């Protein structure tokens, strides 16, 4: 029997970190998903939405979805992000590791500097896009209001997209997703070190965790400020059914960002910002608590 102090400080194998992270991620999705539905609805709505179809703000959107479509619509499409969680997590870990090694070798340094962690994070974010795009596409299609009579669930979305728009259409939105991930990671890794160095030095484990939490929240908020315009455009691109011979309104990311700003004003690039940021705080808390619980449980099971 290991002494309590030994157990507390024992190294945690990758398997446990991975499974703990996945369980934490899924718990976060289960609780926070309605915010994601509301975010997508607000991002998809342009100046043409009128009357009962118009969402004036986040709360109005919640109210109208529940009233007009029923409570369960706040969970429509949730299986896509849940299925995505494990492959996304695996890619994130592997990509961070491999790109980190690659850049350290390429630049001939053996320690991770801040510039390198920004570069690594941004490249890993771009790599992750290849895994998440099809899941994100299915999710957006199911979150759209008009999807009720059109799609009968996740498998049906995939079947219909492949049949009507071709198999490559499953990757619609890849470019905007890359922009979204690159800017988020650059913002996040770009300021997390700075914030940590500005916070008071901590000696205790609790104090260190608090510093991590503060730096992580600031990093997340900065990432969200940078990436929301790309998220808006991504939602619009992924919601569009491609019809042969019709030029889609939103195609490449940067012209689409300019188009949204021109037609709906600069503020429209920040549609869905409030539900996005609101998710960060409690979402991060859930991740941390569930992850710690899983790891502690694993520790308690060790001989
Ligand atoms: C999403 O796309 C579909 C198909 O192109 C369209 O019918 C629907 O109106 C769009 N949703 C919004 C909110 O614009
Ligand atoms: C992209 O969208 C813009 C604005 O709707 C349009 O003018 C342009 O022709 C489109 N480009 C392509 C390659 O489809």
Automatic annotation (TrEMBL):
Localization per record: Mitochondrion inner membrane
Main subcellular location of this protein, as a coarse class: mitochondrion
Membrane topology: Multi-pass membrane protein
Matches recorded under SUPFAM superfamilies: Mitochondrial carrier
Solcar repeats: 12-102, 112-198, 207-297
Domain of life: Eukaryota
Keyword annotations from UniProtKB, A to Z: Membrane, Mitochondrion, Mitochondrion inner membrane, Repeat, Transmembrane, Transmembrane helix, Transport
InterPro entries: MCP (IPR002067), MCP_dom_sf (IPR023395), MCP_transmembrane (IPR018108), Mito_2-oxodicarb_carrier (IPR051752)
A GO molecular-function descriptor: dicarboxylic acid transmembrane transporter activity
A biological process term (GO) from this entry: mitochondrial transport
UniProt GO cellular component terms: mitochondrial inner membrane
First and last residue of the signal peptide: none
Family of the protein in this entry: Belongs to the mitochondrial carrier (TC 2.A.29) family.
Protein name according to UniProt: Similar to Probable mitochondrial 2-oxodicarboxylate carrier acc. no. Q9P3T7
Protein species of origin: Pyronema omphalodes (strain CBS 100304) (Pyronema confluens)
Organism taxonomic ancestry: Eukaryota, Fungi, Dikarya, Ascomycota, Pezizomycotina
């Amino acid at each position: 029997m290991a002494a309590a102090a030994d157990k507390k400080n024992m190294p945690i194998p990758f398997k446990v970190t991975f499974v703990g992270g996945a369980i934490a991620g899924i718990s976060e999705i289960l609780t926070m998903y309605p915010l994601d539905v509301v975010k997508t609805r607000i991002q998809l709505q342009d100046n043409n939405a009128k009357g009962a179809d118009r969402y004036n703000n986040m709360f109005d959107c919640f109210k109208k979805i529940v009233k007009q479509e029923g409570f369960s619509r706040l969970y429509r499409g949730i299986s896509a992000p849940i299925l995505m969680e494990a492959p996304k997590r695996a890619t994130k870990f592997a990509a961070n590791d491999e790109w980190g090694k690659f850049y350290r070798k390429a630049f001939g340094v053996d320690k991770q500097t801040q510039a390198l962690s920004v570069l690594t994070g941004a490249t890993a974010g771009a790599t992750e896009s290849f895994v998440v795009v099809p899941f994100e596409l299915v999710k957006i299609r199911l979150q759209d209001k008009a999807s009720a009579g059109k799609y009968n669930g996740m498998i049906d979305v995939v079947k219909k997209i492949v049949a009507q728009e071709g198999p490559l259409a499953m990757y619609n939105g890849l470019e905007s997703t890359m922009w979204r991930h690159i800017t988020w990671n650059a913002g996040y890794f770009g300021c997390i070190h700075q914030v940590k160095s500005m916070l008071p030095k901590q000696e205790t484990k609790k104090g260190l965790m608090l510093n991590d939490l503060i730096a992580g929240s600031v990093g997340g908020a900065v990432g969200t400020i940078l990436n929301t315009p790309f998220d808006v455009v991504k939602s619009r691109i992924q919601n569009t059914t491609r019809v042969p011979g019709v030029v889609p309104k939103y195609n490449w990311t940067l012209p689409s960002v300019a188009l949204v700003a021109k037609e709906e004003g600069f503020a429209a690039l920040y549609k869905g910002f409030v539900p996005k940021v609101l998710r960060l705080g409690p979402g991060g808390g859930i991740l941390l608590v569930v992850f710690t619980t899983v790891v502690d449980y694993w520790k308690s099971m060790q001989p």
